[in-house]
UniProtKB/TrEMBL annotation, chains A, B:
<keyword id="KW-0418">Kinase</keyword>
<dbReference type="InterPro" id="IPR029056">
    <property type="entry name" value="Ribokinase-like"/>
</dbReference>
<feature type="domain" description="Carbohydrate kinase PfkB">
    <location>
        <begin position="2"/>
        <end position="276"/>
    </location>
</feature>
<dbReference type="Pfam" id="PF00294">
    <property type="entry name" value="PfkB"/>
</dbReference>
<dbReference type="GO" id="GO:0016301">
    <property type="term" value="F:kinase activity"/>
</dbReference>
<dbReference type="GO" id="GO:0005829">
    <property type="term" value="C:cytosol"/>
</dbReference>
<protein>
    <submittedName>
        <fullName>Sugar kinase</fullName>
    </submittedName>
</protein>
<dbReference type="InterPro" id="IPR011611">
    <property type="entry name" value="PfkB_dom"/>
</dbReference>
<keyword id="KW-0808">Transferase</keyword>
<dbReference type="InterPro" id="IPR002173">
    <property type="entry name" value="Carboh/pur_kinase_PfkB_CS"/>
</dbReference>
Length: 304, 304
């Protein structure tokens, strides 16, 4: 396995201006894995309840995702209820039921512990640290995501984790909250000071900005006619980003730039339909075509 | 003269987190003209009061700007007082004194009326229409800007104007207000339905998106370490955008793309210091260097 991801697997109840779904497969590890699966071999560490649908297992397996680390526990799968009604860019959480996720203790097999790429999706930074410590060798690249909750209640563990990763992928608002800086380049530079050589600031419909070692790179969002469900866009970005890097097995500047566009490509698919409905049914030519649309969206000629 | 611009010339009192200026040269036509002057010959139509500083006349003349249309009237120059304290992206207007601008009646000489490029900066759409009607020939390209005030109180005249221009340059919020569409591509498409073949949506620190005939182009904002004063960024963008188009004398897709980056380049200089302090002192190599920084900010390799 080239990439190991640890994070949530969930059933989400979601309402957007485009409609409502009572219970759709979601969770950061799920979105990440399916997006990354188009580029490389992915293994998931997570937990589901005894209500987990065999059809969802079959979907993950059909993407050659290694789910040997997806533990089935007694109880119900993690459930998130949210809506994007006032502002399509901002999720309002209506309810969170941790269920089996509340006592989640990641356990790694040898195959997991030897993965060269590691993505620590948004969970308690103490668990993220535990997974990083459990790796047999320091992976070639470790990236993580986080959220406002952990900045509020687990800042020391989060700061320790960030000091140990190569890349932090974080929302703009959370980057500002984490660093206390209002201005984006200042926030990115404060994060660099915490440890990571790359910081990806996710800006929703405004795209993402990558701050690397002595360069920055602006990836736009694709101006889609219709955004159906923004859930999972950030994790799909991460899946495309890490999936591409693992596939070329390089983390240099040039690869990071292309990876950010691959991430934006996968995020653009994620929001086109509810949950994983679009992302799970892609072909490689769909991906290549959308990547080319990003080329067209951003290309310009020299100044004459 | 290649470009004629009609719009405000002002003295602004501005406060930003970087400091405060009691009275600095501003106004849409001023920012536009100085930015465009690095690319082509510009003529301004506007009005100033008898308090207008001869040093400001000298500065405009030093940029070879034709100010034969800048009328001096009895009274004081238009004065805008604003601040950007809570949010550097949003100007809060504290006071507006129209002064001589209140009875402004644009008058065009033959040289003005034959300009092949026309920019109608943000003023009463009835005046914008009057200038367009006064042109001897239909210019090769006409673009305009507007603001929430005119959408509120002069929508019919504004809609008539928009039906006659080639390009509308407008802030994201105002594009949404104008069209009643919450989603950017929908707003752009509604504007296209009103007439213009190109719509440039200005998104402040998120850059600008150009919606043209069968293409869209995303121009990022430059991630500056320090934004000192956002006043005039949009008009400096317009000046770079139109100035470049007039200099190559083409308005095809390829030229529009490059022009949007030239616009972003000029906007990035505008915000680096108060008022015109940075923009008025540029060299052509400063501009070429910043343009190259945009190339570096956006370039990426094909998917392998």
């Amino acid at each position: 396995m080239k990439i190991l991801v640890v994070g949530s697997v969930a059933y989400d109840a979601v309402e957007t201006p485009a409609g409502k779904r009572e219970s759709q497969l979601g969770g950061a590890a799920t979105y990440f894995s399916v997006a990354a699966s188009y580029f490389t071999e992915v293994g998931m560490i997570g937990v589901v309840g005894d209500d987990f649908d065999p059809a969802d297992i079959a979907m993950l397996e059909s993407h050659d995702i290694d789910i040997s680390g997806l533990i089935k526990a007694d109880g119900k799968t993690f459930r998130w209820t949210g809506e994007y009604m006032e502002d399509i860019n901002t999720a309002v959480t209506l309810d969170t039921q941790l269920n089996v996720f509340g006592s989640f203790e990641p356990e790694l097999s040898d195959a997991h512990a030897n993965a060269p790429y590691l993505f620590l999706a948004n969970i308690d930074p103490n668990l993220q640290l535990k997974v990083l410590d459990a790796m047999a060798n320091r992976p070639k690249m470790v990236a993580n995501d986080t959220m406002n909750l952990w900045i509020d209640i687990a800042k020391p563990a989060l700061s320790e984790l960030i000091s140990k990763v190569d890349a932090l992928l974080i929302n703009e608002e959370e980057a500002k909250q984490l660093t206390g800086e209002d201005h984006l380049p200042d926030a990115a530079s404060a994060i660099t000071g915490m440890g990571p050589s790359s910081t990806v600031i996710k800006r929703g419909e405004y795209g993402a900005t990558l701050f690397g070692e002595n360069f920055s790179f602006a990836a736009p969002a694709y101006p889609l006619e219709r955004v159906v469900d923004p859930t999972g866009a950030g994790d799909s970005f991460a899946g495309g980003f890490m999936g591409y890097l693992a596939s070329v097995d390089k983390v240099d500047q040039e690869s990071l730039r292309t990876a950010a566009i691959v991430g934006s490509t996968m995020a653009s698919f994620a929001v086109e339909d509810f949950g994983l409905d679009r992302t799970k049914n892609l072909t490689h030519s769909d991906i290549a075509e959308r990547f080319e649309a990003f080329v067209d969206l951003t290309r310009f000629n020299p100044l004459t």
